[in-house]
Design goal:
The chain has about 130 residues and is α+β, with helices and mostly antiparallel strands. The protein has helices at about 25-35, 95-105, and strands at about 1-5, 10-15, 45-50, 55-60, 75, 80-85, 115-120, 125-130.
Length: about 130
């Protein structure tokens, strides 16, 4: 685990999965099939636990312009310091992502009001991040 400084806010378009974990791929497919210029965008995953103890998962893409794709939910990854872990070749073992978040969530410095963030910054690598309190 390491700290990572997220330098600026990133505005996202989100598609909530109908279930977790089974609906995750469908939520990513919904974005890929309905948002233009996906090849110019970066993929993200946003997740948190609701008041019923269920995990809510949102597939996400960065916005290219402020007012685009209003049919999707919006979310902003805010600048700040995050506790993170990089997973390489994550598709070989996707369960590593959940395992990484289980470790990250044990840190007492976490901002529990902010969701978990997956940043798919390359085809093979993902950075799992949880925001630290200011």
């Amino acid at each position: 685990m390491e700290t990572f400084d997220w330098k600026e806010d990133v505005h996202l378009l989100c598609n909530t999965a109908k279930s977790f974990p089974d609906g995750i791929q469908e939520s990513f497919d919904g974005l890929e099939n309905n948002v233009p210029e996906v090849e110019k965008r970066t993929w993200y995953g946003i997740s948190y636990m609701n008041e019923k103890g269920e995990i809510i998962y949102k597939a996400a893409l960065n916005k290219l312009t402020p007012g685009e794709a209003t049919e999707f939910e919006s979310f902003t990854i805010t600048k700040g310091t995050y506790l993170s872990e990089v997973i390489t070749d994550w598709m070989k073992n996707p369960a590593q992502i959940g395992e990484s978040f289980q470790k990250l969530l044990t840190d007492p410095r976490l901002d529990t009001s902010f969701p978990c963030v997956e940043w798919y910054y390359s085809a093979d690598d993902v950075r799992c991040m949880i925001r630290l309190r200011d």
